[in-house]
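Summarise this fold before class:
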Amino acid sequence: MERFSGFTAYIINHTHWDREWFLTSTYTTPWIPGLIDRLGELVKDNPDFRYFLDGQTLVIEDLLQFAPHYRGYVERLVRGGNLAIGPYYCQPDWRLTGGEALVRNLLHGARDVQQYGGQTDVGWLVDTFGHISQAPQLHSLFGIGSAYIWRGAAHPEPYFRWQGADGTELFAIYLLGGYRNLYGVTHAPELAVRRLETEIDNLQPFYPTPDIPLLDGYDLENHPEDPLTLYQARRDELPPGLQVRETTPGRFAHVIRPKLRELPIRPGELNSGKYAAVFPGTLSTRTYLKVMARDCEHLLYRVCEPLGALACLHGRPYPAKRYERWSRTLLQNAVHDCLCGVSIDLVHERMEATYRRAFEEMQADLQISLGYIFQDFAPGSYALSTNPGSYEGWQTVDGCLYHVKTQGVGVWEIGEGIPIRITDRPVETFVWKNACYEARVAPDGRVQVGVHRGCLAFLGALDVYEEHGDTYSEETGVLLGNLRPDGPMVVEQESDWHAVVCIPLSAAWGDIRVSAVVRLTFDPSPLIRWQIDLDSRGTDFRVEAVFETAQPGPVAAGMPFDVVLRPAGDQDLLPRRLEGDLAKILTGQREIGAVETFPFHDFVALSDGSRTAAVLAKGLHAYRAGEKGRFQVTLRRAVEWLAKPDLAGRVGDAGPRSYVPDARCERTVTHELAFACPGFGVDDVRFHALNAGYQNPPLLVQTQGTGSRTEWGFFQEALPLSSLQVANGRVLARIYNPTTSRQPLSRLTLQTDVFGHPEGMVQDVPAKGIRTLVAGEALLPPGLSPRLAVILTNPPAWRVGPNRGQPDPAVIQGLEDRVLELERQIEKAALRLTQATGAERYRCQHRVYVLERELYEHRLSIRLNRIKLENPAQAALDAPDEEVAEIGRRLNQLRIQRRIYDYIVQSL
């Protein structure tokens, strides 16, 4: 019997479109028309040709903004089934992006797919750096029952039932060979059959049926090919019994699922770098970007849109298109290479400008909404809450301390402020005691708190470590030390109910300089709050805020729509060198040794069910957990290379060898953290109300209105809110239940789907469930613009200072020296190529492409950093630089050729 008899190779043609990575979209978008033109040529020659556009409609949006006349062309390809788009708007990093933004990504994508006449019922997560536990439920909300993944799985199973936090199952197709294993076969047609046989040989030991998916595509591939036509022309060379078919991701999922009887169940998040790297370093690279992203997402989904919905009930026309524009803008920055911080500096400079512009526009929009909401209120001071739960807290504004109480979404009157004494009183130590805890601030700035059976927690030390990694991967070195006081600790302000203590800290090690101004706020609430204004100079170090909580229990991390339990580390990884079947298919990056850094949103905690020790944070996402309840939250990781070779904790080539000095993060960033030790667990709705109150405290306003109203309660529930918006004439509230038990609603409520279409009445939310509810009707006719002046006394603040770093001329000179050396090596390699024959000719060509790719990576770094040195203010402008455009175009060609020859050489 022939060894390939009965096997079928299913080829999926696609591209992975990294629109902003080693270039900005200013340079990559002009490549898209050529991609579409090429697809048209392939379809003309083969009307059955199918192509998948990376699961994101943003590529089409970019194309039509650049070349609007392509719209009809695109629609014909989509409606004809030759071009598949969606289901997402973009390809975000799911670990770092907020939950509501992930919903909008699917929502915008679904509407775009419908607009262009397509349909997509399969997820495409082939380069996502890890997967959250709620991904199955989020896909299910949009009718998507299967998804392709590559990174994150901890078992070499090509198919499994991915069970989400709420029990929803998604049929997962795991691409063991990556998303490019049959890439570029037409570039060496004489080896096309050999490559096909090699890939099937490599993969078939892992597949339960003789159906083998093979993928022809790569990052920024803009000149696709038709491998099926090539194999049909060479059918006489194919092994007897082997069938070769072209398919799409959706078609293959429908073909293979009925053939699989028993499938393993894999629950929860998929966050392992065992078989393909998930790059833990990206959780802490360029933390200033993470802070910007969090603050902008929060301002849009938890402030502007909810206020716009409330204002709509008072006569404001609801600006849905404006909110959607901001949503799409923020999602463009959430793309994995962007938000992860692993792109060239120019990409991140543009992101920063985009965030700042959106933040200012949203601030102006919320002010308009306030004018409508308060037009019938009496003069006075009010708290405006967009949290559905109850809140009690203390806020300082303009020299006064306010005790604020709210009961859900709405407006609540607040009393007179308590005068604050500005003291700037030096102290050796400081003690604060309330009904929740007793705390002592030591001379070194650490806070001591009794939390469990007489044990002391030591909170807030700022430790500095060596860092030998790059933007993708962390590689922590020795502890250099911690920041020490460089001035007196002072009580800046106090009242009978609160105090703010300020401690200046700093330290230096060689060229490394780190400083911080730490402000601690104490009041009657259960929270101790830190404001850390962190600044630094230098590279190759990391700064961590250390919380030694002394609390027993498993690690619980807040993640989008969920709380996940994790071990302190992951040592279930493979060795650097592999043998046997795995060695043939694991050609990409992998984590090795041990992974100790994990993602979180909002909080990370230890809880034994009855007590909790939690660190809450705004816009930080990387933590390490250790013994005795120790948490280390990364505030800054200063590196300056996009990707380094030969890291101790990673196998494989992660990205271009680009010099990115802005990744040193030489700027002031204000970090906000808090510590709480409540007498209940993280599975209690009271904990999530505490977190919601910290993350999204009420807005405080003063108004001189002429009305009589002093209170307005609109929507109240005990569960967290993800969004409040207007759709289909209704105010829709998206709430979720992060606990493990069913939670009742306050009343029987109409539930809708994510688009706002009614589904039926509900009276509770199941464990881990995400539900969209009708909070009220929004059918009032628009009114006149109010002329009421409303003063927002605690407006959202921008927390990131300007970049003060600059490229090092010595590093640029080193790159130029390396370019000269590479040119000499290329000349020698090209000479060997002219003399080589047979298999050696392919190996020599591969060597030339490897060297040329590195050459152009360095040339691009040199040019970009020279521009920055010559005119820093112009670096982020959209006008393309002709030299950058040409270098970038050539670099992309060389990346493609080098990757193709990786597979050619492997097959020899």
